[in-house]
Amino acid sequence: MPADVPVMRVLPHGAEVPLPRRMSGGAAGFDLCAAETLTLNPGRFQRVKTGLALAVPPGLEAQVRPRSGLAARHGVTVLNAPGTIDADFRGELEVLLINHGVEPLAISVGMRIAQLVFARVETPEFTVVDHLEPTARGDGGYGSTGTTTV
């Protein structure tokens, strides 16, 4: 197996869960499914098991991102989006979901709950300096680049 290919282990409680897959040829994300049944009530958040452990190759990270359909239909999203799976993590992938909707959401085994996107990771070295090169924006923070009118 090439060293730059993610390796996945299916845990015993994930045996019946579909493996992550892209739902179209142009999709960036691999859908992650739940490996447990639970109810996510409005205003609550919970970690949801996937039944998978993943070995991400060095130089990559796996990002756990929301599914737009869950957000649009139920107000449910990934609380720490994007969640990062580091190359040296070997535990079970869990998805931290929050229900911003008004109705409880029943999550069942095999339900698509998030997506997994792989990205390159840069590891620069930091240098301490007395000042930074000036820019037109300077130290202007939140809202400093203008306002939007509708």
Tell me what you see in this structure.
This protein has one helix at 68-74, and strands spanning 7-10, 30-33, 38-40, 45-55, 60-65, 76-78, 83-85, 92-99, 105-107, 112-120. The protein has 150 residues and is mainly beta. The strands form 3 sheets. It has a 4-stranded antiparallel beta sheet with strand order 1-4-8-6. A 4-stranded antiparallel beta sheet has the order 2-10-5-7, with no helix packed on it. A two-stranded antiparallel ribbon has the order 3-9. The protein starts with 6 loop residues before the first strand and ends in a 30-residue tail after the last strand. The mean pLDDT is 93.
Instruction: Let me know the CATH homologous superfamily.
Output: Deoxyuridine triphosphatase (dUTPase)
The neighbouring-strand order within the major sheet is 1-4-8-6
* Structure classification: mainly beta
Number of domains: 1
Shape: globular
Number of continuous helical runs: 1
Specify the biggest β-sheet.
4 strands, antiparallel
Please indicate the percent range of residues in DSSP E strands (runs of 2 or more): 35-45%
